[in-house]
Write a structure and sequence with these properties.
Shape: globular
Number of strands: 0
Helix content: 55-70%
Structural class: mainly alpha
Largest sheet: none
Strand content: under 5%
């Protein structure tokens, strides 16, 4: 094969593996893959194009979080908007890409677009009901909206899922912080486990996995 043919084959091979950066809280073990330049002549599959856009969106979220830490809220908002645009383009290429729906929800929530965020989390969980990061972020969205009963529903699910201890801890802290700030009693809005099957915790979460946590 020619050198260009080998290069294209390597590029497509690298894009075939989905980015494993679906959770946006805490530190990540490696940088997300960056889009390659000069690949307009390469025909990508819809999934590969979605993964490229997802990686780009994740990079924007990482930079936006850094801006927030430095108090640069306007700069962060611009980057969250870019991430939201790329995430929505990703799901337009592959509507079954649950990690990308989770990213759309996260970016929209950071922009205070709660209708869009809730819809995106619901689509993510319709595809993968046991996806713990989306349940945590959905719960945090409900906290920000003051809907503690619904936030407690997601917390109840996470606490029942053995592999979701980190997500449960973070959501529990978000609920506690809200209650402390608003003078709500510690047990305000608590609810039992959701009744519908789409929100019931799996009996054996050790075998279900959580998709790129």
């Amino acid at each position: 094969m020619t050198g260009r043919t080998i290069w294209i084959a390597c590029l497509l091979g690298g894009l075939a593996a989905p980015p494993a950066f679906a959770s946006f809280g805490g530190s990540k073990s490696e940088e997300p893959p960056r889009p390659e330049t000069g690949i307009s002549s390469v025909s990508l599959t819809p999934r590969q194009e979605a993964e490229r856009l997802y990686a780009d969106a994740y990079d924007e979220i990482t930079k936006a979080k850094k801006d927030l830490e430095e108090g640069k809220e306007k700069n962060a908002a611009k980057k969250f908007k870019k991430a939201l645009d790329r995430g929505e383009r990703a799901v337009s290429f592959d509507a079954k890409y649950h990690e990308a729906w989770n990213l759309v929800g996260y970016a929209a929530r950071k922009l205070k677009d709660y209708d869009r965020a809730l819809a995106a989390y619901e689509k993510c969980l319709a595809l993968k009901p046991d996806y713990a990061p989306a349940r945590e972020y959905l719960g945090e969205a409900y906290v920000e909206l003051g809907k503690l009963d619904k936030a407690h529903e997601q917390l109840a699910w996470l606490e029942r899922a053995a592999a979701a201890t980190t997500e449960a801890r973070d959501l529990k802290k978000a609920i506690a912080d809200y209650e402390a700030a608003h003078g709500a009693p510690a047990d305000a809005g608590k609810a039992g486990a959701p009744a519908d099957s789409s929100q019931a915790a799996p009996a054996d979460t050790s075998a279900s996995g959580h998709g790129g946590r």
